[in-house]
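[Solved] Which block belongs to which protein?

Original post:
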Amino acid sequence: MEYVTLSNGVKMPKLGFGVFLMNEPGEAEQAVTNALKTGYRLIDTASRYYNEEEVGAALKKSSIPREELFITTKLWFKDAGYENTKRAFEVSLEKLGLDYLDLYLIHQPFNDYYGSWRAMEELYKEGKIRAIGVSNFYPDRLKDLVMHNEIAPMIDQRETHPMNQQWEAEEWMKQDGVQLEAWSPLGRGNKEIFTNSILMKIADNHQKSVAQIILRWFMQRNIVTIPKASHVERMQENFDIFDFVLSHEEMELIKGLDQKTSIGGVLHNDPKMLDVLSQFE
C-alpha cells in the first residue's frame, strides 16, 4: 500500500474502499468484509449512506487490529451546528462500534458548518478523531474555513476523475496543507471514460484495465481515492495497481482528457443542489 501524510502527521492509505449506495440488507457488511480480506484498510462511509451499522458489523467480525484500519464517516448537513455535531458524532461512533474515528468529514458545505467545525476541533483535541476535514467544499468556502478557524481541514473530498481532474482546486488546497481525496474516481462507470481511446491504449500498454490505469494515475498524483465495487473480482482488480508505473508521457495524456465537468451535474455551488439534498433526512 502507498500512503499520504496529512498535515498533522497522520498516515492515510491512498487507496480505500467506498460504500456509497450500498443499501440492500447485508450488502455493505459483505462488501466491507470482502474488501478487508482483499487488503483494503481505508473504509469510507457516511451517516447518510445509511450503512454505518453494517460497516461496523464487518469491522467487528474482522481480526485486523484496529490500528491498521482507517475509518471515515461524514456529518450530514441537517446535523450541522455545534451541539448537533457532537450528538451526530456519538451516534455514528456507536453505529460503527468504534472508540474513535480516523477521519470525520463535514459532508456538504451547507447549514451551520462553522458550528460543526468548532465541535470537530474539540473532538479532535480530545483524541476522539485522528483527522478532520470536509467534503464537497469549493476553493472559496474551503479558504474561508481555513482562514477563520484554529485548525485547517486536513482533507477535502471532491468528485475527481479523468473528466474532472480538479487541478485548480488542488492547488488551492496545497497552499493550506489540505489533502485532496477523490470520490467517484472511476466516474461512476461512465461509458465515455471506459471507452476512451487514450485510456484504452495505455491500458493495453501495461496489460491492465482502464480502471486500473485510472487508479494508478491517482496514486501518482498523490491523491487518496475510494473506488466502490460490489464484486470481489472487481475489488481485487482495483487493488492490483502497485506493480506498475505510468510514464510521464502517459500521465500527460491523461491530463489532457480533463473537461472540468461533473458526471451527472453534481455542483455544490448550485442552489438547486440544496433542494435535492434536502429531500434526504
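(Second protein starts here: sequence line, then its C-alpha cells.)
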Amino acid sequence: MTVGVHRTFRSRDGLTAAASWMVYTPPGSLACDALHCDAGLFAVADGVDHSAGSGEIALTEILRLAGPRRSARRLHGALQAANWTLWHNSSGVGDSGVGLHGATVTVAMWLGHRVVLFHVGDSRAYLVRAGQPKQLTTDQTRPGPLANDEAAARVGLAPDPVHPEFVDVSVEPGDRLVLCTDGLWECLDPVAMAAVGTRSAAEACKSLESRAMDKATEDATAVVVAFSTSHGRGPQRPGSRLG
C-alpha cells in the first residue's frame, strides 16, 4: 500500500484543494483508481478489474475533450465522447457485449458560490458543512457480468450514451467538497467525514486515507478534498448550466 498527497492547489480566489491516493494491488487485479485536481475542476475515477489504466484514460479523455473553457454542457459532451472512445478502444468485448475498459467517473467544477458535478457509477461526492457530511451523489448500479448480482454503472461499458447524474449545489465559505472512490467511502463513518471540516485539504486527505488503511481495505482508493476560504465569488466560468 502506498499513501501520498498527489497535488495541493491554491488559487488567488481563495480556492484550495488536495488529492491523495492509496494503491493496493491484490493478485490478479489490474484495477487502479485515478484522480484530477486543478483550478476549479476535480475528479476521481475507478477502473474495472482487468482494465489497467481505464480510470486514468477516462479522466484524460474527458479533460481533453472538455477543453480549457469548461462548462457543464461541454463536460457532459466530453463524458459521452469518452464513453464511446473507451468502448471503441476496448481490448476486448465479452459475449455479453460489454467492453472491459469501463470506469466510474465523478467530476466536479467549483464555480464561485456553486459546485456542479456529473457522476456515473459508485464513486461519491460529499459536501461537509459545519461538521455535517451530506452525500451529493447516488450510487448507480446496473445488472452486469462484473459481479454476481449488480455492478456499478461505468463510462465505457457500452456504446450507448451514458446517463450521468447531474448535481448543482450552492456552497458557502468553509464548505468542503469530498470526492472519493468506493475503496475509501466503504471504510469511512460519519465521524471521519465530519472531521474533514476542521482540517486543511491536505490534512483531510491524509486523515481519510489513514482511516482506510486502519480498516485494512483491499481496494485502491482516490480522494480529493476542496474548499473555498474566500467570501467573494471565487473562480467563475461562463456557461455553467447544462440546460
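Accepted answer:
You had them paired correctly. Confirming on the second one: Residues 183 and 217 are 7 Å apart (CA to CA).
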